[in-house]
Amino acid sequence: SSGINAEYGHDEYMYQVLTRNKVDLPDEGLYMIRFHSLYPWHHHQDYSHLTNERDAQMLPWVQKFSSFDLYSKNETIPDIPTIKPFYESLIEQYCPGKLLW
Fold it and tell me: What DSSP string runs through 49-98?
């Protein structure tokens, strides 16, 4: 919503990098990246009086993504060489070339 000042961290930074580089992600994906740490909003509906219709439409996507973020960490360290090709292919598909940081 316009006219609201908020502090952002890594979420907003990544959102800005992706949008400025015109990556091929749907709006739902960009919303998930931008707002997934705003836990009071997507979990408790705090700040809802500051949202607009677009925020309400995107809320379910942010909620769905949160299951892969907060409290989803595993104590077992993944086998990086095994999973690296998968993540590299996603980066190449959605963020091809060099990104401007």
Answer: GG--HHHHHHHHHHHHHHTTSTT---SSPP-HHHHHHHHHHHHHHHS-SP
Backbone angles phi, psi at 63, to 5 degrees: -65, -40
Sequence-separated (6 or more) residues with CB below 8 Å from residue 15: 30, 33, 34
List CB contacts of 97: < 8 A, sequence separation 6 or more. none
Return contacts of 44-50, CB within 8 angstroms, 24+ apart: 50/1, 50/4
pLDDT digits (tens, 9 = 90+) for 1-41: 467 777 778 999 999 999 999 998 999 999 999 998 888 88
Mean pLDDT across the chain, nearest whole number?
88
User: pTM higher than 0.90, yes or no?
Assistant: no
